[in-house]
Amino acid sequence: MIDLKLIQHAVALAQHRNLTRTAELLGISQPTLSRNIASLEDALAVRLFDRRPDGVVTTDFGKLLVEQGLGLLQNAAGLERELMLLKGLETGELVVGAGPYPLEMSVGTALARLLGKHPGLRVEVMGLDWRTILAHVLAGKVDIGVVELASVKGEAEVATESLPAHPGVFYCRAGHPLLAKTAPSFAEVFAYPYVGTRLPPRIAQAFIGILPTAHIDPNSGEFVPPISVASVRTARDVVLHSDAVSVAGLRQIGYELADGLLGVVDFHPPWLVSSYGFVYRRNRTLSPATLAFMAEMRAVEAEIAAEEASVS
Description:
CATH superfamily of the largest domain: Periplasmic binding protein-like II
CATH class of the largest domain: Alpha Beta
Helix content: 40-55%
Largest sheet: 5 strands, mixed
Radius of gyration: 26 Å
Order of helices and strands: HHHEEHEHEHEEEHEHEEEHEHEEH
CATH topology of the largest domain: D-Maltodextrin-Binding Protein, domain 2
Shape: elongated
């Protein structure tokens, strides 16, 4: 029987065509890799690689092995994943990809509750843009994504689930001139620097023509602010120490509002609402850890929606 580890080494060598580099990537020594390849060739009684001055190249036998070996390795990884699913929440793993707004709105709280119930879980959270999250979901690198759902509409290979919509607010530092105005106009609000993360295409059109220093990304359709940052937290820090304005959910700036450091501008456009939710690969069994995380997210999101309703 052929050792799958030897096939993995042969596939890696075929991809990188350099014994030393491949050994480094595999975390083994170059002599060990050479012995493993030689053992595989002896076991199959064929030469898999030709060593040439410009690198290692596969023979016809090697090409066949790589082609078939990739399928074997993928099947083995799938089997391992299904077995891990059976282990459940006590030893499971969870990888979450989230956009900037849900990341700070509810993901952290949901994970805290999940880990409080299941401290043995291994969790990785990635704060990413929606395109990267979608690519990672499709590649199996992310178990569950939390993104603006309009951005993944029409993607046949993924399933989605909406989470509650949350109104956003424009905010600025305490003492800002805008706080003294009743129902300021769009132009009055954006007479001041605007700082924030990219906003989805459904919102982008509202900004064009108002902010001449901003633009729409032609590839994604997203609104790119004049002062573009990667997180709501960074935007909040800029606003606290300047005349800049930004947008956020009330939950995201709640402490600063309570402490009187920030104030909400009396400007409430109807289009400023969230529209994010879960995205995951269709027809792939969700792990117990993923399902438990989704349940915690639903609960946290429902609580936030109830809080917002109570102050509206």
